[in-house]
Amino acid sequence: xxxxxxxxxxxxxxxxxGDSKYRGNCSGFVIRDLIDTFKPKKFVEVFSGGxxxxxxxxxxxxxxxxxxxLNNGWDAMTDAMPTSSDFVFSHPPxxxxxxxxxxxxxxxxDDLSNKMPYADFIQxxxxxxxxxxxxxxxxxxxxxxxxxxxxxxHYFSIVKDMxxxxxxxxxxxxxxxxxxxxxxxxxxxxxxxxHEHLLVFQKNQIWEVPIKFTKDFKRDLRALINVxxxxxxxxxxxxxxxxxxxxxxxxKLNGCRKADHNQNWQAKIxxxxxxxxxxxxxxxxxxxxx
Length: 290
Description:
The chain has nine helices and 14 strands. A seven-stranded mixed sheet has the order 1-9-10-5-4-2-3. Strands 12-14-13 form a three-stranded antiparallel sheet. The protein has a two-stranded antiparallel ribbon with strand order 6-7. It has two domains: 8-212, Vaccinia Virus protein VP39 (Rossmann fold), CATH 3.40.50.150; 221-289, Orthogonal Bundle (Arc Repressor Mutant, subunit A). Strand 13 (279-283) and strand 14 (286-289) form a beta hairpin. It has 290 residues and is an alpha/beta fold.
């Protein structure tokens, strides 16, 4: 009977698998339940860390499992996958949250946990994920466990920013236990991260590779066509400190994309100021947010 009968996973205990002192080890029950669910013919693990996957594979009777990590001399950036398989589990570093050079006791320039710009980390992770996907047998699966990271006021969603190779068949949320932030009390609006993502991708075509990636960019609100006039006027009033005259609104929105598509744009602004619930008149020709 499959163990993964819900998209929410919770394992308060990591089990007897692997080195419990090895920082960042995932619960062996995650790997055990993946194996019980998908029943792979050959199990390969990338970023095998403290030996968790190896212990699970041994318990499950896999004599031909392969476990790859800098710990045993396999470099994810430069070395090829040593074999093809129908199932790969990977648990990469969560950016530079844990310095695995210190965990191993030696420095390696290709360690994904090295201090580097976040964009460089994503680029390196993408290279590894593509390598894993290409090594899969057709109809094979890659299950990746990855978490989100917060640093210096920025929230980094690795699962969103990394490139997806293959068809996504499962997205499970795993509860985290025994994290450093779980033992602290926080004030204000800070919300500790207490979850990880377990994504399962499948290779369904020999030649065609489904690829999905996100692109981050910024646009001026005035350059958008689907923004409403009320939202544009509201932005002007907010920028000017809470009060704006009709002439100031005209000046700020002259040349915006919506104005370029409406020859009566000034009349439209006056209509919004009169009829929209966003605004109130404070004096003749002067407006505030309602």
